[in-house]
């Protein structure tokens, strides 16, 4: 890739040759193999002009590809200057403190754009002399902050900025622990990060980690406060101060499967430092664009003490960089435990106008299964108090709760527009509302969808994506017992005990599998009379042959059904089943009786022959079934009736049973 230096007279020709080469090379690759997705790479180039140690940087970005119907597309910028400092301006100026060679990096994010963010190669900047001095300015409002340059997107990289400050009045050495890849998700969301250290920090192997034990357990705070980056200029992040470091570390390890730990030394009082991590999203990361994922940081400013700061940075999965977005932490929940869960929603917005917004109205759908009375406003930006009942002239947030809608209205505020003159910091044009809500008393296991209409002043509404909540299927184990009735089998008795597996408390359609062990018995008796010659005197006599057959068997049945809950109390189903006799024992008793003459009045003789036959794994049968239940159709006890039509003639039967699902 060509790198544009604005001081070169051959830059336009170089850029054209690079573009021609890329087009030619891309056509060859396309001709050789099919392309499953868009592989066109766009490039943003770095240019700079140095005057001693004062450097003016320039960004050269490719044209934007506007998303149809979205606000005007624009770039947001994130620069690293190679000395531990950064900027979010489009064309920043930076003064280096020391001579040397530095590597400047640029990440340009394409908001409201259909393509991928442009790739950029680092630019080497050489400082040979110091012509201007610069004083360190305190910029951090807290001792520990987590930031990012953009939201995570599948198979894309983002940068996490970790800023820390020594608020002690003495020089100290400590540690920073970063946790990512939450246990709540099956797959990792991030690959191994690239870490850039600029102040002599070192990575600590996690297998040799030790914790300071100088703490007071009675002062441990167990409440966690979640934090979120809104802009680079305003950081409404509240700290969670704790003293029990081993407990905080163990809690983090229970929530996250990946960890990086960094040690720093000799940090002077009031000194501020930054370190940077390039986080590459994993191809198998969660695909739900309404999901909220997080990274946790633990900052230990002094290794001699257990005092530390805990910060959580929440992020939303995106498929395109759209600042107007709604997300939820209820992407995939356990329905058994949902009574103890509080859903959290976040609505983000950005003013893309050419002037400030004075009134911003957010009209949010609230699903029926959520309890409006439990809705609680957690945080908002611009930060302002809740509006009183009477009209006021100061900035405030008005909240209106209807049956299935919550309306948040920022009044008398000043939120700059991205196209407004002299607005360099795009993140200063952003805002958000964060609220929590609990489930209603009676709700079903259904997916929910919420979205928000965002109205800036009197402009047309901007409709966000859907924030969805889903439930894991879960597993419900049931015990089933009952009686099989065979209408066309003589003197049949059949009892069974079954294990039932199905999703936990399903709403409407669901699958169900069973394993039944049936104990069957039947008896049949036949009699045949015939007139035969009496061998003793040549007269005739009646010979009666009585055949008694007794069968006992153990039968395994495996039904698989598709069921449908009509309501909370009635359910129907249909499916197929296969069964086989695991063991089958047949006892045959043949009794021959002889009577005098041709009637059965005088029994002259009788003899009985008995035989038994045992078989295993015989009489394999298949069939289809229809099923009906009444009771508690989703969980708990119910009664049912089932009709099974076997592939063997005259072997259809009814099944009457009781079922309890757990």
UniProtKB/TrEMBL annotation:
Transmembrane segments: none annotated. Residues 68-111 form the PKD domain. It holds the Pfam family DUF7619. InterPro entries: DUF7619, DUF7849, Ig-like_fold, PKD/Chitinase_dom, PKD_dom, PKD_dom_sf. PROSITE patterns: PKD. Residues 1-31 form the signal peptide. CDD domains: PKD. This is PKD domain-containing protein. SMART domains: PKD (SM00089). Gene3D superfamilies: Immunoglobulins (2.60.40.10). Keywords: Signal.
């Amino acid at each position: 890739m060509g790198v544009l230096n604005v001081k070169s007279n051959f830059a336009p020709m170089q850029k054209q040759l690079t573009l021609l080469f890329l087009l030619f090379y891309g056509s060859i690759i396309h001709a050789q193999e099919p392309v499953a997705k868009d592989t066109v790479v766009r490039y943003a180039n770095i240019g700079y002009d140095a005057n001693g140690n004062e450097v003016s940087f320039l960004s050269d970005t490719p044209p934007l590809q506007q998303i149809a119907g979205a606000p005007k597309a624009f770039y947001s910028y994130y620069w690293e200057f190679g000395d531990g400092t950064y900027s979010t301006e489009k064309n920043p100026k930076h003064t280096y403190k020391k001579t040397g060679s530095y590597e400047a990096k640029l990440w340009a994010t394409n908001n409201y754009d259909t393509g991928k963010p442009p790739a950029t190669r680092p630019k080497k900047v050489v400082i040979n002399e110091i012509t201007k001095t610069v004083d360190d300015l305190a910029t951090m409002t807290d001792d520990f902050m987590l930031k990012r340059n953009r939201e995570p997107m599948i198979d894309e990289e983002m940068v996490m900025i970790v800023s820390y400050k020594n608020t002690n009045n003495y020089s100290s050495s400590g540690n920073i622990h970063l946790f990512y890849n939450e246990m709540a998700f099956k797959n990792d969301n991030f690959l191994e990060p690239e870490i850039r250290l600029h102040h002599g920090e070192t990575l600590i192997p996690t297998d040799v980690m030790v914790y300071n034990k100088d703490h007071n357990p009675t002062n441990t705070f167990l409440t966690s406060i979640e934090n979120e980056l809104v802009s680079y200029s305003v950081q409404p992040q509240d700290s969670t101060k704790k003293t029990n470091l081993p407990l905080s570390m163990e809690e983090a390890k229970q929530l996250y499967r990946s960890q990086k730990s960094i040690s720093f030394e000799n940090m002077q009082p009031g000194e501020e430092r930054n370190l940077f991590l390039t986080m590459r999203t994993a191809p198998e990361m969660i695909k739900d664009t309404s999901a909220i994922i997080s990274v946790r940081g633990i900052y230990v400013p002094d290794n001699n003490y257990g005092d530390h700061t805990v910060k959580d940075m929440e992020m939303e999965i995106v498929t395109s960089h759209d600042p107007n977005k709604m997300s939820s932490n209820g992407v995939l929940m356990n329905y058994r435990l949902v009574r103890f869960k509080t859903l959290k929603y976040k609505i983000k917005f950005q003013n893309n106008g050419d002037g400030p917004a004075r009134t911003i109205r957010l009209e949010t759908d609230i699903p029926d299964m959520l309890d409006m009375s439990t809705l609680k406003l957690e945080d908002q930006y611009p930060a302002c108090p809740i509006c009183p009942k009477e009209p006021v002239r100061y900035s405030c947030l008005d909240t209106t709760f209807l049956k299935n809608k919550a309306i948040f209205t920022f009044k008398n505020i000043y939120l700059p527009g991205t196209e407004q003159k002299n607005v360099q910091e795009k993140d200063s044009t952003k805002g958000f509302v964060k609220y929590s809500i609990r489930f209603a008393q009676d709700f079903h296991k259904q997916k929910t969808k919420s979205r928000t209409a965002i109205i800036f002043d009197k402009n047309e509404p901007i409709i966000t994506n859907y924030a969805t909540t889903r439930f894991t299927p879960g597993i419900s184990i049931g015990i089933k017992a009952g009686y099989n009735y065979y209408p066309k089998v003589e003197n049949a008795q059949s009892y069974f005990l079954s294990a039932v597996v199905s999703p936990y408390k399903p709403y409407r359609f669901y699958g169900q599998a069973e394993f039944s062990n049936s104990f069957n018995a039947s008896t049949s008796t036949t009699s045949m009379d015939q007139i035969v010659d009496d061998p003793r005197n040549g007269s005739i006599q009646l010979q009666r042959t009585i055949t008694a057959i007794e069968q006992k068997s153990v039968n395994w049945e495996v039904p698989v059904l598709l069921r449908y809950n009509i309501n909370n109390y009635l359910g129907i189903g249909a499916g197929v089943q296969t069964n086989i006799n695991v063991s089958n024992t047949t006892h045959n008793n043949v009794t021959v009786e002889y009577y005098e003459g041709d009637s059965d009045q005088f029994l002259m003789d009788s003899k009985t022959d008995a035989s038994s036959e045992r078989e295993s794994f015989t009489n394999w049968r298949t069939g289809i079934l229809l099923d009906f239940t009444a009771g508690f159709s989703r969980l708990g006890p119910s009664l049912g009736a089932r009709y099974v039509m076997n592939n063997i003639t005259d072997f259809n039967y009814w099944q009457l049973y009781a079922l309890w699902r757990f």
